[in-house]
Amino acid sequence: MDVIFNCPHCEQELEVDSSGAGTQIECPSCGESIVIPAPDSAKIKSAPAPVLPPRMDGGQPMNPISSSAAAKEDKHFSVPLRSVPTEQLIEKPLPPLEVAARESDKIMRIKTIRHTDCVEVGHDRFDEMVTGFLSKIGEANLVSINTLSYTHLDVGTQKLITDYGVMIVYKG
Known about the structure:
Elements: E1 2-6, E2 13-17, E3 24-26, E4 33-35, E5 43-45, H1 69-72, H2 97-103, E6 108-114, E7 119-120, E8 123-124, H3 126-137, E9 142-153, E10 160-171
Antiparallel strand pairs: 1-2, 1-5, 3-4, 6-10, 7-8, 9-10
């Protein structure tokens, strides 16, 4: 039988054979001299009867790990207690843009302004139209401005012409 007791100096849990009762030893944790208590004043632990797992046809245990020495070892774990809640390690992810757009009071909108649509009688008004539209929606509602490059067929010359424009994403 084994005697289980705590060191009076460091509270380390120790386990000694009951035949060593009354013997003075040094604590392996703190190094102080302690006397092994008698079995009646400490917890007594008797060796448990081995439990064999069911056997297969070949006489081998079904799970060899369950009959190993590591599986029979008693483990004394303590759960740490905290007076304050632990910090949150996993933050909630942001909602997808589609969900955010549905839940907001304003919906997402897109405005495309092509350069060819802004040319009138030789006057290029592209910058004026983009500036006017941006000032109308306001900076707070602006989500993004993306440049575009595209090709279109010129009706007069029957040639492909490469041009540019902008795509404005905003809340409206």
